[in-house]
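Model it.
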Amino acid sequence: MGLEPIAPILTAPLFLPLHAELLALLRSLGPGDWERPTSAGRWRVRDVAAHLLDGDLRKLSAHRDGHLVAPPGPLRDARELTAFLNDLNARWIDAARRLSPRSIVDLLAFTGPEVAGFVEGLDPFGQSLFAVAWAGEESSLNWLDTGREYTERWHHQQQIREAVGAASLTDREWLRPVFEVSVHALPATYRNVSAAPGTAVSVAISGEAGGTWSLLREAEGWRLWRGRATAPAALIRLDQDGAWRLFFKALPPASAVERVAFEGDVSLAKPYLGSLAVMA
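Modeled.
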């Protein structure tokens, strides 16, 4: 397998069917299910559902309508941006506890199609309102920002599904786009890793939704490619379940070491364990 340039992944058409899966799931829940704990820290199912509603409302308000919430001061780095976003999220969740599950579902039934229609109408190669910070970008195109939104919505729905014992959306149609977007975190993960030009690190994710991607060290830094390098200095192998969990902080580093196989130069392989497709 040779290296191929990374092509944009267009996820906007997936928003509406993913939303339909969410509504069907939430409408099937009993009263006790809404209070079940999730992998999202202290958030229960109702809190994750409310966070998804907040994401829809913020998308429409900021991106569609130009209504922005200004931070209290300049955000000087990723740590301050994360703190600002975490504060926004926490304050919304506190207020949303006044809402009944039925109200949350009814509101999502309205906002979901609105968001889907909005992102489908965007020029995928136009400039996005916000950069995808976890990809190390200072400015991003809409296709990557929309992809980021897709992965977030998929991931939070997965948290609800696992909490209530519902079937996961890990078929190729859902999960492969998650990987196609999330691998854009790899160049940022490796930005401080030194290697000679031409050095390659390949990542092979097994499973129906898996694939192989490579980082190639070039003069200006690490560049992402699709496919496996001919003779990678390091090869990382893991299954699709471990791969998505690692990207979304759902796999502690100690557990990750047990599920990831390294070949070649381990010093070049281990930074992969720090790959995150979320702000942290």
